[in-house]
Amino acid sequence: MTQAPGSECPFKGLSSYPIPRDPACPFEPPATITRLRHEHPVSKVRLWDGNEVWLLTRMSDVRAMLGDDRFSSQSVHEHFPTWSAAIKAQKTTNTSFLRKDKPEHSYERKLWQAFFAPANIAALRPEIQGLVDHAIDQMIAAGKPVDLCRTLALAVPTGVISKLLGIPESDMPFIQNVGTTRTGINSTPQAVQKSLTDLHAYWMKRIQERLTNPGDDLISKLITEEVKTGHTTAENLASMSILVLLAGFGTTADMIAMSTLVLLQNPQTLAKLKADASRTPAILDEILRYTSIAQHGLARVALEDIEIGGQLIRAGEGVVANLASANRDEEFFSNPDRFDDERESRFHVAFGSGSHVCIGAPLARAELQIVIDTLFRRLPDLRLAVPMDAVKYRLEHLFFGVDELLVEW
């Protein structure tokens, strides 16, 4: 038996999960989540397939769980939490380091981590700046109103990741379509499986091409250092590449659009940012905390009996860390439901926490900062071209965002 998202299950009084945000208050976590954080911070919820899992809603419990290696990220476990049939369809096909534990996770993550080191990100900044300027040129040329999501928010991270991985930009519409299918709550299992199979075949073909004709991109370097030396296989590199690729543009595109929207909703904050660009990183951290686009959280399975927040979680039980709720925890953030550009927000968990914290966070931060600073410097009169209440939010999706943001200047 399955329940509609957000409904109350008729048995045991468990809430159905995920619980969507209220369309009338899209920036607020669901009221049920807030109530659970206050009254039952470690509580059982029921997923779409009847699987009962523990939901963590406090910052201390979320950080404790995500930092504990006794909670597994391997989705092959029987009770590993999933949000829909489409997500469950990926349990056996997602073999990237996102779904591995130590030591395999540590080794594979280390292969990529150097590329996201501060020195490399700093070296990329001029190229990111060029992509941002080009995208804004295209916005202006297109005439107003223009969809910021398509012309800027998606264009910049797509250009960055395609350059890093040596992917022709002409291939990116196919890859973007795979990403949309994979993260859509309402996608069918068949569509998800086909899209991932097609993307894996795509990567295997590109890896085979680079084996004989390497370039100067990140994948060619890994082929030379890891595949040709026998440290990993072409199939495993393909799985890792899919993760980095799909994570490298979709969520950053969402955050560019959402950051622009939040700033347009808060003109006093926007004025501070325009007056002093050194404030941008701190303001963006508050936006990351406030929006928490990974709206359903991170899933794990307990490998042994573990106590979290005073509750014993048995070996084999699924656990969900609700990042959006943790980022609204009153014990960590004063008046957390208010957007406050003076707040110290850098200890949020919008990028996760622990050994699986988002590996691409430094790159995402750089892209966000360059986009926002450049956008409002070049188009200081930027404004929404539609009423604020006409903006359509993406609520039934893994990541909170908008599919269209019409602007003018």
Brief write-up:
This protein has one domain (15-408): Cytochrome P450 (Cytochrome p450), CATH 1.10.630.
pLDDT < 50 runs, ≥5 residues: 1-11
Distance between the termini: 50 Å
In spatial order, strands of the major sheet run: 1-2-3-9-6-4
**How much helicity do the residues have?**
40-55%
CATH topology: Cytochrome p450
| CATH top level assignment | Mainly Alpha
Query: Per DSSP, what share of the residues sits in E-state strands of 2 or more residues?
Result: 5-15%
Order of helix and strand elements from N to C terminus: EHEEHEHHHEHHHHHHHHEEEEHHEEEE
What would you say the CATH architecture is?
A: Orthogonal Bundle
Q: For the report, how would you describe the main beta sheet? A: 6 strands, mixed
Gyration radius, rounded: 21 Å
**Averaged pLDDT:** 90
**DSSP helix count?**
15
Number of strands: 13
Assembly classification: single chain
Number of domain modules: 1
The CATH H-level superfamily is Cytochrome P450
- Secondary structure class reads alpha+beta
Shape, please? globular
Task: Describe the protein's architecture and organization.
There is one protein chain. With 409 residues, the protein is α+β, with helices and mostly antiparallel strands. It has one domain (15-408): Cytochrome p450 (Orthogonal Bundle), CATH 1.10.630. Helices cover 47% and strands 10% of the residues. The chain contains 15 helices and 13 strands. It has helices at 31-39, 59-66, 85-88, 104-113, 118-142, 148-153, 155-165, 172-183, 189-212, 218-227, 234-265, 267-275, 280-291, 323-326, 361-378, and strands spanning 15-16, 42-46, 52-56, 71-72, 146-147, 298-302, 306-308, 311-313, 318-321, 383-384, 393-394, 401-402, 406-408. The strands form 4 sheets. The chain has a 6-stranded mixed sheet with strand order 1-2-3-9-6-4, sandwiched between helices. The chain has a 3-stranded antiparallel sheet with strand order 5-13-10. Helix 1 (31-39) links the parallel strand 1 (15-16) and strand 2 (42-46). Helix 8 runs antiparallel to helix 9 (189-212). The protein is globular, with a radius of gyration of 21 Å. The chain starts with 14 loop residues before the first strand and ends with a strand.
